[in-house]
Design brief:
By secondary structure, the chain is of the alpha/beta class. The protein is built from 18 helices and 13 strands. The strands form two sheets. Strands 3-2-1-4-5-6-7 form a seven-stranded parallel sheet, sandwiched between helices. A six-stranded parallel sheet has the order 10-9-8-11-12-13, with helices on both faces. It is globular, with a radius of gyration of 21 Å.
């Protein structure tokens, strides 16, 4: 059967690559076309219609600045779906773009599945109307999403487990030792504070300098920055002290070997928690208090970081907007270093979070469900 998959950012590329692998296991005749990245390309054996590097525009202003590119991408993606006429369109998060693809696919009579729900429970809840209209079945990766969709919108969705759990555990089986990691990146034998400033230039611009300044208050540690795929190393130089080491393509290893981490809010916060590394979650936009008050009104959840949302309690500190300053972030960082109370408290919270997520193989469960759903339709057509 033919599958068209759309993932618009690095985390989606990772999760979609695992889904492609699982689909090949349940459907030996599977053929793929996709929007995504190198991991998907490696697993599918074909190049992306559009690489996520040319799609990852975040926020209203960034989309407006790149509107011609966004519209070109959308037209190209819709044309590719029309040409491929897949048996299933599978969307991975990235709602502004993907829901437009869903509407296009439904006009063509193509079955639409969503793997990894958009965060409609946090903001832009109105998108649920589009989801109910255009998506045949939603597969969620957070347990609380099942109740949200059913209780608030009378929409049945399926919790399939969280892919990060299996991905992290699998990577841990093959991770290099600390000595190998230090040698590979020419790092001194000194404890590490990891800085994970995000995968988009806007996130790096707004957060990296603050995060490095907060870490600099602990000279007994070395600060190491996680370089994101698709971002030139030169770009980081605008926002860091010259000579600060950057490791590219090794965020996972860096967080694992770090004693603590400063992480921009996103999927990396969950991975850091699954690695059992204490963290402070940072997110700064324009940094004014009014923005924070507006955000509090818009957000429909008590937390923004995934560890806290999953556990429904404060496991990690969230330093957002005007609270994301070197002084305040540094104070929270001091409390989670080894030997301080926050270090053990976070690890206890991480254990609770893991129990809530469970051990289900999200990609395999989703692949089986999609294949079983479309196989009868294909049989009828024959």
């Amino acid at each position: 059967m033919r599958y068209f998959i759309s993932a618009g950012e690095p985390s989606g590329d990772l999760h979609a690559a695992q889904l492609i692998k699982a689909l090949k296991e349940v459907d030996r005749y599977a053929e793929f076309a996709f929007l995504g990245g190198d991991l998907m390309a490696e697993e599918a054996g074909v190049t992306p219609v559009i690489h996520y590097r040319d799609m990852a525009f975040m926020g209203f202003s960034e989309v407006i600045r790149h509107l011609p590119q966004v519209l070109t991408n959308l037209k190209q993606a819709c044309n590719a779906i029309t040409d491929a006429m897949p048996d299933a369109l599978i969307l991975v998060d990235y709602p502004s773009f993907n829901l437009k693809l869903a509407a296009h696919a439904k006009k063509l009579g193509i079955s639409v599945y969503y793997y990894i729900s958009p965060k409609v429970w946090a903001w832009k809840e109105h998108r649920v109307k589009q989801i109910k209209r255009f998506v045949d079945r939603m597969f969620c990766i957070f347990p609380f999403e099942v109740d949200f969709y059913k209780r608030r919108h009378d929409y049945d969705v399926t919790y399939v487990g969280n892919p990060s759990v299996e991905e992290v555990d699998e990577k841990l089986r093959h991770i290099p030792s600390r000595e190998e990691f230090l040698n590979r990146y020419n790092l001194p034998d000194k404890p590490i504070i990891a800085i994970v400033p995000g995968s988009r230039k806007s996130e790096i611009k707004n957060n990296l300098m603050i995060m490095e300044q907060a870490a600099a208050a602990h000279p007994e540690y070395q600060t190491v920055i996680a370089g994101a795929p698709g971002i030139d190393l030169e770009y980081y130089g605008y926002y860091i002290t010259p000579g600060t080491p950057i490791v590219k393509g090794a965020t996972f290893e860096l967080m694992h070997h770090a004693k603590a981490a400063l992480v921009t809010s996103g999927t990396a916060t969950l991975e850091c928690a699954l690695l059992n590394t204490p963290q402070v979650v940072c997110y700064r936009s324009n940094g004014i208090k009014l923005s924070y008050q507006i955000m509090e009104k818009i957000l429909k959840v008590p937390f923004v970081s995934l560890p806290n949302l999953i556990a429904n309690r404060r496991i990690v500190p969230e330093m957002l907007v005007h609270r994301c300053t070197p002084e305040l972030v540094g104070r929270e960082l001091s409390n989670i270093l080894p030997g301080r109370p926050g270090f053990d408290n976070q690890r206890e919270g991480y254990s609770l979070m893991r129990r809530i997520l469970g051990e289900s193989d999200a990609a395999a469960t989703t692949a089986t469900a999609i294949h079983n759903a479309i196989r009868p339709k294909i049989t009828q057509l024959k």
